[in-house]
Write a structure and sequence with these properties.
four-stranded antiparallel sheet; mainly beta
């Protein structure tokens, strides 16, 4: 490849006879003959994946770059051993928000996630925050933010998370804030049923 305008990396996760895509990323810019680049990505591993696996990495995953008859060398692989996390238990212990907000203005909220388990809660997960007209999470709620993060929370300790952004495209109403921690269940917990909490007031 003398010049590459678009490079797409496709990371594949080999599970027995099934290939599961666990991450993609894109890179824009030239790559001249003889040049190379180094990159990295954080991905969510399925919590059920335990043992020895093969990770496949494929560059130019969508074949956007013309390589004539050289497409056959775009894939490489490595080996990984995945161990199960020790059981922890995450809850949303506190939600802080302004009493009033104006549509179109910026809003700042924060929430605390506590590990009530006996072991450290470590890994890569997502917190999701919703606007809801009631205190129960449903498909009608408005997703405000979905934030991936790395955590390392000791037993009986808390971590604080913050979000600042504009309130746009939201109907005028009184809303509860609902926070769902570890929304994809990436952290191995004794209970996933207590990961959702709602603000007491609208």
């Amino acid at each position: 490849m003398d010049r590459q305008k678009f490079i797409y990396q496709l990371i594949l996760f080999w599970i027995l006879v099934q290939i599961l895509e666990i991450g993609t990323m894109s890179k824009v810019g030239p790559l001249n003959a003889g040049q190379n680049y180094t990159d990295s990505i954080n991905v969510f591993l399925p919590i059920s994946a335990l043992g020895n696996y093969v990770i496949f990495i494929k560059t130019d995953g969508n074949n956007n770059v013309y390589e004539h008859n050289m497409e056959g060398n775009n894939t490489s692989f490595g080996f990984i051993n995945i161990e199960q996390q020790l059981l922890s238990d995450l809850i949303v212990s506190e939600i802080t928000h302004p009493a009033q907000a104006i549509a179109g203005d910026s809003i700042t909220i924060s929430w605390k996630v506590k590990n009530t388990g006996l072991n450290p809660a470590t890994g890569y997960m997502k917190n999701a925050v919703y606007l809801s007209t009631d205190s129960i999470k449903s498909v009608n709620d408005v997703l405000l933010v979905s934030a991936p993060t790395s955590i390392n929370i000791a037993p009986q300790s808390e971590a604080t998370f913050n979000y600042s952004g504009e309130l746009t495209g939201v109907p005028l109403n009184d809303y509860h804030l609902i926070v769902h921690t570890d929304v994809l269940n990436n952290i191995y917990e004794s209970s996933d049923s207590n990961n959702i909490s709602s603000s007491e007031s609208k």
